[in-house]
Amino acid sequence: MSTIILGIESSCDETSASVVKDGEVLSNYIANQTIHEKYGGVVPELASRAHQQNIIPVVDAALKDAGIALEELSAIAFTRGPGLLGALLVGTSFAKGLSLALNIPMIDVNHLQAHILVHFIKQNTPDFKMPSFPMLCLLVSGGHTQLVLVENHLKMTIIGQTIDDAAGEAFDKCAKVSGLGYPGGPVVDRLAKLGNPKAFVFSKPRVADLNFSFSGLKTSYLYFLQDKMKENANFIDENKADLCASLQSTIVDILMDKTRKAIQQTNVKSFAIAGGVSANSGLRSATEALGKELGIEVHMPQLSYTTDNAAMVAIAGYYKFLNGEFADHSFAPMARMPF
Ligand code: KG4
Ligand code: ZN
User: Fold this and answer.
1) Atom 8 (ligand 1) nearest CA
2) Which domains are delineated in the chain?
3) Whole-angstrom Cα distance, residue 132 to residue 232?
4) Which tens digit of pLDDT belongs to each residue from 59-71?
5) How far does the centroid of ligand 2 lie from the alpha carbon of residue 200, in Å?
6) What's the whole-model pTM score?
């Protein structure tokens, strides 16, 4: 008999539902909340309200796209955390209601583990290969920057992480002070392709072990802009592409330096990137190059699985289902959630 999982993601500003059948994605429906753009960042209260509006239409669309009826579902997987509490409550409550109505189990999923598990979605392409274990994953998103040692689908250990801002925050905050809108990561990526990555030099942090820091870079970028703007009020406009290229290459270098160290220390068989920032073209080229340099198998997620989506929640639910790990109806969402 097939295992069919409905996944629900509502941890931040994307309401998403997906159907996964025997490890393959049948549908992955995402409603982006554009309301936050005018505030330059996610407004938690508005995110919760939008999830409440979107959740039923999104689940309906995911089921229809997949051609699956509610009665065929084996279980419902939902993001329990980490994330915005009010946003998580919407997905968690919905999962509880549906689980009770259909009398099927529900499965709690850690959002960060889910980002990593997109690499274990079965794909019907000739060149597709599942990563070998142990795998090292660089998880880079708007809220997290971590090096994770992945021993199997469900056993993961954080071996390094940011001590302040996340890599995505560095992209977003620097983009914001440059007047490039929100979220800034994709805009910086696009403009960086037209610029010189060596045009400007920004400071890199010195942090112990396998940890990262991005708050110094953000400050150094801001002071640099303020100085230049005193001399020339049009400095940003005239140098947008070079600024983006230099910022992006600094962030990628910081990430790759620690990643190289982590691969060498752990003797892993494969290396992967995941999370919203793994969509970045500079990071993807650097990952490819690092794989060649160290002679290690490299995995990069399909672009549609980089930023928040429910396929990652459904696939995480699928592996937990196979392992017999289910949630209790008393489970509450967790704004902070350990692995
Ligand atoms: O994983 P995600 O969707 O949400 C969190 O869990 O945080 O990641 C969102 C982050 C944002 O900071 C966004 O700017 C960044 O991913 N991002 C990118 C790119 N696409 C999304 N950063 C750099 N280059 C991109 N192409
Ligand atoms: Zn995420």
Assistant:
1) 276
2) 4-121+305-322 (3.30.420.40), 135-268 (3.30.420.40)
3) 52
4) 999 999 999 999 9
5) 30
6) 0.95
